[in-house]
Amino acid sequence: MAASPLDALGLYISIPFCRSKCTYCNFASGVYPASDHARYVDRLVEDLAGAGAWVARMGVELPRPVDTVYLGGGTPSLLAPELLARLFAAMRAEFDFAPDAEITVECAPGQLADPTLAALVAAGVNRVSLGVQSFIDREAAVSGRLHTRSIAMDDIRRLRAAGIANLSLDLIAGLAGQTFASWEESLAALAECGVPHASVYMLEVDEDSRLGREMLAGGGRYHAGLVPNDDAIARMYSLAIEKLAGVGLGQYEISNFCRPGFASRHNLRYWHRRPYLGLGLDASSMLRAERPGKPGPVLRSTTTSDLKAFFDGPEPVETTSLSPEQQHEEAWFLGLRLNAGVDVAALEQEFGSELVAPALEAVTRLVDDGLVTSAGNTVRLTPRGQLLSNVVFQEFLGLPSQKFVP
Predict the structure, then answer these.
(1) Is the C-alpha dihedral spanning 289, 291, 297, 299 positive or negative?
(2) Which of 8, 126, 324, 332: disulfide with 67, CB 3.0–4.6 Å?
(3) Model confidence over 233-271: pLDDT tens digits?
(4) Residues contacting residue 46 through CB under 8 Å, at least 6 positions apart
(5) From residue 112, how far is each of 31, 36, 380 by CA, in Å?
(6) Could you please report the per-residue DSSP string of 362-396?
(7) CA dihedral 161, 124, 276, 284 (to 10 degrees)
(8) CA 355: distance to chain centroid?
(9) Is 164 in contact with 127 (CB distance < 8 Å)?
(10) pLDDT band for position 291 (50/70/90)?
(11) Which domains can be identified in the chain, with CATH numbers?
């Protein structure tokens, strides 16, 4: 029987190692010597063993039941089979995995050796997220990916043959050189795979990626001049919603689509504000103590994004206790990511009508702007609101809001 949603924990383990750094990537990952892999796992095992004591010092009890596990990165499948086995053994030694726990590992096409696949199966991995990003070989190559469409398709076949059928594929709208025709081709290839889950992201332009920095500087490296404009990327995203719905992959979150029953249970944990423990480079945790009738203490922590500091440091570098007001803000901007929307009555029960009232004034403004709908007790993003979600979320963070003319 699965652990109670109020008591169970999710584990997120960051594995920052990559074979190459993609031009668009803004994560704390990179190409590090293989000699760092064992040292990194050593540190993770140490942190797993000490997590309960660290959390206790912060005044929050760490649940032992675990119902979701997610290894992200980076490319976790680059770890040697014996390191993967050791890491999973350490997790199981410290926590009680539910019999039906969802255990996800991110993999890059073409970087999943047979011994590694066997190690994942032996460790109980039952879900894989495959970072395809594009099924068009030239787009993948320009972005720094090391696979072709053929390689990705072969990995999907190998995973299914190994007994892992719960697969998710990632695509990015807005890659350099992408056209509407090539985007439709990628969407058609994804549909052909018949996977039960997909994630579609719009290209982010910021200073945390090489491509983003080049675009902001107006340069031409990394084929920055071939990136579609914002309007084209938005239309590609809208097309993806339509095409994926047509093959049974319904949108349930801004960037996520699934067949019934195949939503990512681990990612739902984030949006539903359920507790999770993040370990490794640039990993976040959210731990909370439930109190009947009112918000309980909530602790958020983030580890360093610097590998040397991670090896040297004893515990997360930043820890924050969220006030009820901050928890209320999060409930809005996390809940609105979901197509199911935000249940206002549930928020009033959790936080009180007085705290929720200013948010309802913001909702009225956003309805007038065509960014959300409000029916009964449910507030949802409109299709336009999904494209301008950051504008919507600012309203609930107390930041100045811009008005957009429909």
Answers:
(1) positive
(2) 8
(3) 999 999 999 999 999 999 999 999 999 999 999 999 999
(4) none
(5) 17, 19, 39
(6) HHHHHHHTTSEEEETTEEEE-HHHHHTHHHHHHHH
(7) -70
(8) 29
(9) yes
(10) low
(11) 9-269 (3.20.20.70), 324-406 (1.10.10.920)
CA distance 297 to 302: 17
* Angle between helical axes of 81-94 and 35-57 (0-180°, round to 10): 10
Q: What is the phi/psi pair of residue 47, to 5°?
A: -70, -35
Cα 183 off chain centre by: 22
Cα Rg, the chain, nearest whole Å: 21
Which pair of structure tokens corresponds to residue 344? 């206002």
Q: Is the pLDDT of residue 138 over 60?
A: yes
Q: Report the alpha-carbon distance of residue 286 to residue 9 in Å, rounded.
A: 10
Per DSSP, 403 falls in state -
Q: Coil, helix or strand for 347?
A: helix
Tell me phi and psi for residue 284, to 5 degrees.
-110, 150
215 CB-near residues (< 8 Å, 6+ apart): 205, 224, 227
Q: What are phi and psi of 73, to 5 degrees?
A: -170, -150
Take residue 200 and report the two structure tokens written for it: 């579609």
Q: Tokens in use for 164?
A: 């892992």
Pairing mode of beta strands 276-279, 9-15: parallel
Task: Answer yes or no: are the C-beta atoms of 136 and 185 closer than 8 Å.
Answer: yes
> How far, in Å, CA of 257 to CA of 235, rounded?
17
Between CA 299 and CA 307 the distance in angstroms is 24
Lowest mean pLDDT among 2-6, 235-239, 252-256, 286-290: 2-6
Q: What is the dihedral of CA 83, 87, 93, 95, to 10 degrees?
A: -170
Write the CB contacts of 57 (distance below 8 Å, at least 6 apart in sequence).
none
CA 370 distance to own-chain centroid: 27
Q: Average pLDDT for residues 278-304, to the nearest whole number?
A: 80
Write out the two tokens for 215: 């675009």
